[in-house]
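Hey, can you fold this?
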Amino acid sequence: MVLFADLNEHDFGLIHAPIDDLEFKGGASLYDEGDAARGIFTLRTGMVKLVRVTADGRKRIVRVLRPGDVVGLEALATQRYNSEAVALTEVSVCRIPLDVINRLGGSSLRMHHRLMQKWNFALKDADDWLADLNFGTATQRVAALVRKMRNPLDGLTCTLFTREDMGAMLNLKLETVSREISKLAHEGIIEPANKASRIYFIRKPDLLLDR
């Protein structure tokens, strides 16, 4: 699904280093910003946020990654991680050593092509994240986040985060985010699945698009 789907038996024969299956609880850090890279991570389940510290010391969430995404892909070029990667939920990942990726990328056209696809997708996703979530009114930003976090399988549910995380994503104050989420719920556009969950049902998707 992620990187190795198109490889054949010969390609797999080039892998001599172990590929680790790892699990992280929500809130755990996969790596810190600026760390020397040991490998890249393919995300199997859960969600990961990428966090950067601004010049004035504030933390900003720059992207959210979901199953099928590659975490730390920039390490192939820089040998370091550009952001801190933090598990938003419980996650399971495969950690692939950099030398395995470099070896396969240099010897397998299939692997090289898949890497370029993932790189292009990551760049586009970063551009879309910036364009969709950092401009417009508070109402527009919160609605855009709800749309972006919809379940791709049905489009009728979405998973949101703590108000602090949402504020860091949208560059909004916690109180503003809470007010906008409450407004969407009051208007019947979204409905919480239960009090303990951050999963919401999207009841009126057409009205969500109009925000």
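Oh, and this one too while you're at it.
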Amino acid sequence: MIEIKNLHKSYPIGKDSLHVLKGIDLHIREGEFVSIMGSSGSGKSTLLNIVGLLDEHDEGDYYLNGQLIKNLNEKKAAILRNKFLGFVFQSFNLISYKTALENVALPLYYKGVSRRERLKTAMEYLDKVGLKDWANHLPSELSGGQKQRVAIARALVTKPKVVLADEPTGALDSTTTDSVMDLLKDINDEGMTVFVITHEEEVAAQTKRVVRLKDGVIISDELTKKATQSA
């Protein structure tokens, strides 16, 4: 599903450049539940941005669902994102003046789905994350955990192949963190590939595979107890 070979990425800083990713090799198969761990500056967010087609790599090869990702203009990148990827962010990224239902329905608007159909589908996904009764509430009327559930419903509504979650529990307490991770586990159990960026050991332990980054290179890639228990 995601295949990365000898990936490099640098950013210019004045006359110099910062080499962030230094030859990453990573293969994530369809249906895996993977966490990418590392401290701040390890390169994990840069890796997520490249996998999510939000940034371009300098060297190496990146294949998404068998397709070589190279020299995409923004329109082609947006089409591929809409087709294959769903995003969940630490800061939720909900639109403040739209209800939970409207926030979840928004990706379907960009796909050209009729209003009636997108609201119907959005309600189904809110129900899936346990928030059907909160459909007409604004984000300001929701708790942090509820906002993240809305964000997950929004990520799922287009039926992506891969869910990319960037520090999805970073703004949540431990109880709410567990409920959000349970939701991601349920999504994975249904066959979806889930790719989580985190710096929290407790979160990584709930995934099935942990890839650790340090200074732009992979230092370990191991299955967790969760994976061996479900094998």
